[in-house]
Amino acid sequence: MSTTSRLATLLVRIQGDADGLEGELDGGLARAESTVQRAGERIRSASSAIGAGIGTALGVGISTAIENESAGDKLAAQLGASGDRAAELGRIQGDVYAAGWGDSLDTVGLAIKGVQQNIGDLGEGAEGGLEGIASKALMVSETFDQDLSMTTAAVGNLLRNGLADDADEAFDIITAGLQGSGDKAGDLLETFNEYAPLFARVGVDGQTMTGLISQGLQGGARDADQVADAIGIFGETALKGGTAVEAAFQSIGLNAADMSRMIGEGGPAAQQALQMTMDALRGTSDEQTKLNAAAALFGDPANTLGAALYALDPATAAASAGMDNIADRTDAAMATISDSPAAALETFKRSTMQKLGEVAGGFVQFGMQNRGFVQPLIMVLGVLAGAILAVRVGMTVWTAAQTAWRAATAIGTAAQWAFNAAMSANPLTLVALLVVALTAGVVALYMKSETAREVIN
Questions:
Q1: DSSP secondary structure code for residue 324 in this structure
Q2: Which of 157, 159, 236, 424 is the most exposed place for a label (fewest CB within 10 A)?
Q3: pLDDT of 154 above 60
Q4: CB atoms inside a 10 Å sphere around CB 31
Q5: Distance (Å, rounded) from C-alpha 178 to C-alpha 189?
């Protein structure tokens, strides 16, 4: 075969290989482009979702942290706390709220403030400490629609006047009283706050006090205040004595001096004086004598109470009102409130929010304290994120790159064969081959490059 023929054959072969290569490259690049587009869409979607989730969580966490800080600072200012004590109060406030008590951090703060101011050291030793007492106060207030400050004040008054042994018992007395008929007129806690010292004067405890109020209400009394007012007047009148008092006691078969002494002793003796007086009144058959003695010893409330006054019986008061077995009554009520899907979900939500607040608060605090470190770190993280995205995209085009490599290898093989053939040809043939190759290169460049087309045109 002549050199010219061999060159012609070579050109045909190169043209064929080039055409096939162009088709293979076009297909590979098209597939690569499609793959990259799909991968990019997935990456953008995933990145957007993840970024939105992280951003939302961080935003909620920061908002919660700010709210926690604000509520904690307010509580600390109200109680004059600072340093470690302020931090402890803030922690307790957050824990109580996270457990599902109170409708806001400020409400929890109000409960803690009430416990500190109205109960104070009297609450030491109570179950759960300050956190436990505040939780109970919130439960009573929210469950029975009671004023929160009045609730903690009632606990404090029961304790200060010896009507309850500890804060837990005081709450049990209040809970049981509100569950029974003692709050018929909605004034039980107000009555506890106003009349606790007067009930203490006649020697009764919180259970008996609540039972007496319940007996009076069941007997027809208007409200708890009316019953308590009558008993308060009796304690004062019997202790003070006087001609009218002596005559009243004598008319029902009692000695005024003995009654005064027993009231003065307080405790069981004072309660016994009240018991003896009520028994004597009920045992008086003459209605006029009974009414006169009652008015002299119990004041005006005796006239408005009517038969309800004679229903008062200290010996049976606690048992008749269900107040004789009230241990853990408040804990049981709290368990009932907490034992519902809605309460469990709310507790979970609040706990999660508090944790987010702690994390975000720590992040923000660290960032504020270490700006010189955090700002470059954020830039580095941004670069890393871009690099990771680039790697992900690069992986998706690897198949296309392999296709291109195989094509390039084919070109290299053809080019090497052509070069060898050219070297064996004469100079004129070599020049012709170079012209053809240059022309083919320019054509390929024109077809593949928009910039080249603009220059050539």
A1: S
A2: 424
A3: yes
A4: 14
A5: 9
- The residue among 252, 251, 250 whose CA lies nearest residue 283 is 252
- Token look-up 């006087």 returns 242
CA distances from 114 to 127, 137, 193, 194, 419 (A): 17, 9, 14, 17, 99
Q: Are 184 and 153 in contact (CB under 8 A)?
A: no
| Residue the block writes with tokens 């090497």 | 416
Residue 21, C-beta contacts closer than 8 angstroms, at least 6 positions apart? 407, 410, 411
Rounded CA separation 264/270 (Å) = 7
- Can you tell me the distance from the alpha carbon of 38 to that of 209, in angstroms, rounded to the nearest whole number? 78
Q: Is the pLDDT of residue 204 over 60?
A: yes
| Average pLDDT, integer, range 377-389 | 53
CA-to-CA separations, 258 to 11, 46, 54, 90, 295, in angstroms, rounded = 139, 89, 78, 55, 20
Please give the average per-residue pLDDT across 268-285, as a whole number: 98
d(CA 68, CA 358): 9
Q: What's the pLDDT score for residue 10?
A: 42
Rg of the Cα atoms in the chain:
46
Most distant CA pair in the chain, distance: 157
The amino acid sitting at 114 is G
Residue 25 to residue 22: CA distance in whole angstroms: 5
Q: Considering only CA atoms, which of 164, 155, 147 is closest in space to residue 119?
A: 155
Three-class DSSP category at 203: coil
Q: What is the signed CA dihedral for 257, 258, 260, 262, rounded to 10 degrees?
A: 160
Asked whether residue 239 carries a pLDDT value surpassing 80, the answer given is yes
Residues 6+ apart with CB under 8 A from 331: 127
**pLDDT tens string 113-144:** 999 999 988 887 888 899 999 999 999 999 99
Q: Decide which of 352 and 193 is more confident.
A: 193
Q: Give the list of residues 6+ apart from residue 113 with CB closer than 8 angstroms, or none.
A: 75, 78, 79
**Quick one: three-class SS letters along 390-420?**
HHHHHHHCHHHHHHHHHHHHHHHHHHHHHHH
**pLDDT for 35:** 55
In this prediction the pTM is 0.67
Backbone conformation region of residue 147, classed left if phi is above 0, alpha if psi is from -120 to 50, else beta: beta
Burial of 103 (0-12, 13-18, 19+ CB in 10 A): exposed
Q: Quote the mean pLDDT of the chain.
A: 79
pLDDT of residue 63: 56
Express each pLDDT in 415-441 by its tens digit: 454 445 444 444 444 444 444 454 445
